Amino acid sequence: MAVVEKPSRTRPWALACVVFVAAAVAQRLYWIAGGRWGYTACDRTELVDPAGGCGADQVVTVPFWSGWGALGVGVGLAVVLGCTVRFPGKWATAGSWAAAALLLVVAFPLHLVFEVPAALAGRPSDWRDLGARLVLVAGGVLFAGLANASGPRRGPVAAGYRPVPRWTRRWAYVAVALPVVGWAVPHALWVLGMPVGISERALNDIERDLSTPTGVAITLVPPLAGLLVLGLVQRWGQQFPFWVPGLHGRQVPRRLAVIPAGVVALTLVTYGVLSIAVLVGELLAGDTRWSDVWDGWAVTATLLVFLGWGVSLAVTTTGYALTTSAKTSMTDLPGSEHP
């Protein structure tokens, strides 16, 4: 009797990644050739026309990283994809994970968390940019799926509920508190017309550019999203709660929690580090004065909030991953006693 081989579990992920890479490369070639469909110049021009790409049709030559640079990245993704399919192994799988992380970091999901609710609330938004970021997120998810499918089969997650170490719980509380204290509180004060930590001019700009629904959305969405961190230290982060139909009591797939949390942590840290580096560079070059920093100390402090938020989330995610690993004994975790 002939043996029928089961289809490779990497095949659907690989085909989806091929479609993503081919579409990305074709779009960049189209832009390089002079086409401008889907292109936006809102981050490089003074024109205020988000819906029309801020004069994208008037751009003669696209910047390097929007054209040839992005094309080179697309070729690199194609090479990683080919190696993962043709030469499976830990190095190829690591390459796919790296590609997924790159795409997700470049997409900067935190920007989507801010801008999509504001756009839905009626604020004029650059939908070309938001669409491109969503596509990058989809590409990151596809490469993560490919890496997961091509890697070695892992053992099961630890059965039952395991309380996380106390240090993990404390870092989780920090990750929840930072967006509330460092983001929601000052933005709420600004929306209410109180110039705390910013100049009167900056407050006037906020009142002019933000409608009340948009201001409320920008203020509340990040801390509400931050509450998901509690899932890394609570029972419902390891076992589906009663209100999830059909899954009540089942184990939560470990990667379902670790991968999104890890990507968000990496994005926050990257944004914080790069933003601080830009600010330091502007101070050294004299483009920004120390008096401007002091006048807008609340805005400057936000950069540190992002960095601290990312670090605390990364530490919490590490504690969750160690706790839920079937290979880790509870006695191996410091501070693993019940809180």
Search tags:
disordered N terminus, 2 domains, single chain, mainly alpha, 339 residues, transmembrane helix, transmembrane, membrane
Could you explain how this protein is built, in words?
Keywords: Membrane, Transmembrane, Transmembrane helix. With 339 residues, the chain is mainly α. It has two domains: 11-150, no CATH class; 166-332, no CATH class. It is built from eleven helices and no strands. It has helices spanning 11-32, 68-86, 90-107, 109-120, 127-150, 166-191, 200-209, 212-226, 254-285, 290-295, 297-324. α1 (11-32) packs antiparallel against α2 (68-86), α2 packs antiparallel against α3 and α3 crosses α9. The chain is globular. Residues 1-7 have low confidence and may be disordered.
What is this entry, summarized?
The chain is mostly helical and about 350 residues long. The chain is built from 11 helices and no strands.
The fraction of residues assigned to DSSP E strands is under 5%
Low-confidence stretches: 1-7
Number of strands: 0
Number of alpha- plus pi-helical segments: 11
Question: What class, by secondary structure content?
Answer: mainly alpha
User: What is the helix/strand order?
Assistant: HHHHHHHHHHH
How far apart the termini lie comes to 59 Å
What shape does the CA trace take? globular
Mean pLDDT: 81
Radius of gyration based on Cα positions: 23 Å
Largest beta-sheet characterization: none
Tally of individual domains: 2
Helix content percent band: 55-70%
